[in-house]
Design goal:
This is DUF1819 family protein. With about 200 residues, this protein is mostly helical. It is about 65% helix and about 0% strand. A hairpin with a 4-residue loop joins strand 1 and strand 2 (about 170). The two termini are about 20 Å apart.
Length: about 200
């Protein structure tokens, strides 16, 4: 990763949010800066949420995800098929959340490399335990925090298309669009393709 992100629990309050990402990209295309985007999202309820508190919590996260995307990726989110948008959104989440990237890289990628297509709570628990042994900050999190993160991770896997059956925990390799793969390779982010389990880079 370009710079070392701090470990955080921000994902406990948000989720996949692809629709919301598309909305903020459109606002930027309309000429708004990040501060104006956040303000417009909240003041005009761009996401059509029931509670303003949800808008205030989520708007900064979505803007951060948008900021890690270059112009090509932003355009692809809006114009390419849904599956491509999902892959780019997953990439943005990994770019903005260190722990989730490490989960994808150390758990999902490794499972797919050995053709292990099932994930369960034990896998995530072992990941958290390992991280807690390495990082005092993570070790200080409550069991409730771990439970929330576990729920969010499963949700992110499902909405991205990696987890295809919640009950059995069956996962699959994402089918990454060739143009998207080439672009991410060219900007030096092949590690994120590998973490997503892209079959072309795992070979």
């Amino acid at each position: 990763m370009e710079k070392e992100l701090e470990y955080s629990v921000n994902l406990t309050g948000v989720s996949f949010l692809l629709y919301e990402l598309k909305q903020v990209i459109k606002l930027e295309i309309d000429g708004l800066n990040i501060y104006e985007i956040k303000d417009k999202v909240i003041q005009e309820n761009i996401f059509e949420y029931k509670f303003t508190s949800s808008l205030k919590r989520i708007a900064p996260t979505i803007v951060k995800r948008m900021e890690v995307l270059d112009e090509t990726l932003k355009e692809m989110v809006l114009k390419e098929p849904l599956e491509t948008g999902k892959a780019i959104n997953l990439y943005a989440i990994m770019k903005t959340d260190r722990l989730f990237f490490e989960f994808m890289d150390e758990v999902i990628k490794e499972k797919l490399e050995v053709n292990d297509f099932v994930i369960d709570k034990k896998d995530i628990n072992e990941f958290f335990t390992s991280k807690a042994e390495q990082e005092t900050k993570i070790a200080g999190w409550t069991e409730n925090t771990y439970n929330k993160l576990r729920q969010v991770y499963f949700k992110l896997l499902f909405e991205s298309g990696i987890l295809i059956d919640k009950k059995s925990g069956t996962i699959r390799q994402l089918l990454i669009d060739e143009n998207l793969r080439d672009h991410i390779r060219n900007i030096g982010d092949i590690a994120y393709l590998k973490a997503m389990g892209d079959d072309e880079v795992l070979l």
